[in-house]
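BACKBONE GEOMETRY TOKENS
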Amino acid sequence: MVGLPQPGVGPGDLPNPESEGAQHLRQYCTACHALPGPQTHSATDWPVVLRRMWMRIDGLDPKYAVPVPTAGEQLYMTECSRCHELPDPRQHTASDWPAVVIRMREHSVQMLRRSPPQSQVQEIILYLERASRAGM
């Protein structure tokens, strides 16, 4: 149990308990451990933690039926198709996708004068990392 969030954070203790983020915490994180509070990690650490948890879920035996977020696939299809045909996620390795997505985000800002928020970029990266390993 080393490193797991301490018990005692309830859904009502979250800054905005009805927000999409709070709902995701309840749905996905509590499948394996206590509900983490936003202060458990810094804002810059959360993307790394999220990626690590996603990779752990991928390694679990399917018999545990841990829910896996799938919003990233829809975001990938919506955001990335604004500029080009969607590449096969196997086109890059899981470790290459973060740099590719960040580069594409920069192109989006330059060309479209818009970019998805960081939380959505992270979901896209997580989806592509997972899909590149899964072989679709």
